[in-house]
Amino acid sequence: MKTLKVMSIIGLVWFALLFIVMVSEECTVDEALGMGLCAILYAIPYSIVGLVQSSKKEDK
After folding, report:
1. Which runs of E-coded beta strand occur in 1-60?
2. Angstrom distances, CA of residue 17 to CA of 2, 9, 10, 21, 33
3. Could you read off the pLDDT of 30-42 as tens digits, one per residue?
4. What pTM value is reported for the model?
5. Distance between CA atoms of 17 and 40, rounded to whole angstroms?
6. Cα-flanking dihedrals φ and ψ of residue 28, to 5°?
């Protein structure tokens, strides 16, 4: 569960930072698209780790 806690803290900071930059007025559509892609590329491993951790907890 320690891995999941660390990844969730990193995710909160990462997603908040990306959101702040995306809603700034100087951000173009292409930059927002790239930041959204970065967010998705972090969210996929995070969801896999969460799934693995939850399945390990059920097995016990």
Report:
1. none
2. 23, 12, 11, 6, 15
3. 888 888 898 899 9
4. 0.72
5. 14
6. -85, 170
